[in-house]
Specification:
This protein is α/β, with parallel strands linked by helices and 218 residues long. The chain has seven helices and ten strands.
Length: 218
């Protein structure tokens, strides 16, 4: 991001429970970073996985953020209301023959070096429930994290974009939403450091510039 580009950051909690300490640290960090740069701080609720969601958790998270003086710009974006956008992206990738249905188990994927078996990669239609994977394994992605410095990550596995149970995968939703909301700065937990490279690759496949990354140490 250069000096003429407005800062647009975000906080994107999952309503699987109350706002825990680590998430609050990331919320405060991203909010203060946006404030320091005179930017916007957006709020997105990652309600993609109903079986894991706790009733009332989203409301409690919003109230907790407000109680800590963290006020977001614009309305809250709910991923559960953005399915059409995810499906449009999948359609584009399907037309480019970059996704394929896969019913391989995790052990099969690991045994095959991160790839689905060749049969999966060559089929583009399937009648049984299957995950949808992006053909992206191989090589590495490098990026500079503001706090952790230069990172190089091997892309060992074709990324799941839609789960076998029909739910959209986090990796698809977070990248599509960041592009749509023009997010250019992301502060997030250290547990997400290892998945950043795969996200970077999907950004590039979709013709977008990945946001700058700042991984919290907590």
């Amino acid at each position: 991001m250069n000096s003429t580009t407005p800062y647009i950051g975000r906080f994107a909690p999952s309503p699987s429970g109350p706002l825990h300490f680590g998430s609050l640290v990331c919320a405060v960090g991203s909010y203060l970073d946006a404030l320091a740069h005179g930017g916007h701080w957006l709020l997105r609720m990652e309600d993609l996985d109903p079986p894991r969601e706790e009733p009332g958790a989203a409301t409690r998270i919003l109230k907790s953020l407000e109680a800590h003086g963290l006020h977001w710009h614009g309305p809250v974006e709910w991923q559960s209301k953005r399915y059409a956008l995810y499906e449009e992206t999948l359609s584009t990738l399907r037309q480019r023959q970059l996704i394929y249905p896969c019913d391989c188990s995790r052990s099969q994927i690991k045994k095959n070096g991160g790839h689905a078996n060749d049969f999966c990669r060559l089929k583009y239609d399937v009648s049984e429930p299957s995950a949808l994977r992006l053909q992206c394994a191989g090589g590495e992605e490098s990026f500079v994290d503001i706090w952790h410095g230069e990172q190089r990550q091997l892309i060992r596995e074709d990324t799941i974009l839609k789960r076998r149970d029909g739910l959209y995968a986090y990796q698809l939703a977070v990248v599509v939403d960041d592009i749509d909301q023009q997010i250019n700065q992301v502060v997030r937990g250290s547990d997400l450091l290892d998945t950043t490279g795969a996200q970077q690759r999907l950004f590039k496949i979709l013709g977008a510039t990945p946001p700058s990354s700042a991984i919290c140490r907590w």
